[in-house]
Amino acid sequence: PAASGLDHRTLETWETIWGGLSLVLVWLLFVGVIASMISGTFPQLSGGGHAAVGRGRIDPAQLEVTPFARPGLVRTAQGLELYIVARSFTFTPAVVHVPADTPITVHVTSVDVVHGFQVTGTTINDEILPGHVASFTVTFRHPGAQDVICNEYCGAGHHTMMTRFIVDP
Ligand code: CUA
């Protein structure tokens, strides 16, 4: 009968419309989750959630126009800031003298692959990604040497990759 044929076509049309809409919704949800992972809205999904208090973006090929061009300790209007560059298989500077009982904001970035940055004997332990800056503020209370190691496997020289903070009284 012609009437039921028409009904069937109408149903098919609605099915197509709702089927299409649900695909669009799933796609939007997918794109939204990926976008927020990339932008860091959910840092726990994008591998964050470490001791770092801040993360900025940086172009690893353009470090010479940033404070990372001269790694080391600098005094700025914000206080003492320490810039450290990680590359396979060194940290620059190799040794840093820092004053005790003074807050220091440390910024670390990588020029090549993912490295780790762990200050032994402290809770400072972060992942250093090329294109990103990990920043955290630390106050060393006890004079003496504090080793910093790379704890993300980064290649053949990984186990030799370290730097050292010498905390001056
Ligand atoms: Cu750098 Cu492991």
Automatic annotation (TrEMBL):
Presence of the UniProt keyword rRNA processing in the record: no
Record's subcellular location: Cell envelope
Domain of life (superkingdom): Bacteria
Ranges for domain Cytochrome oxidase subunit II copper A binding: 70-169
Alphabetic keyword roster: Copper, Membrane, Metal-binding, Transmembrane, Transmembrane helix
Transmembrane parts of this sequence: 17-38
The keyword Membrane is assigned to this record: yes
Record protein name field: Cytochrome C oxidase subunit II
Lineage, broadest ranks: Bacteria, Thermotogati, Deinococcota, Deinococci, Deinococcales
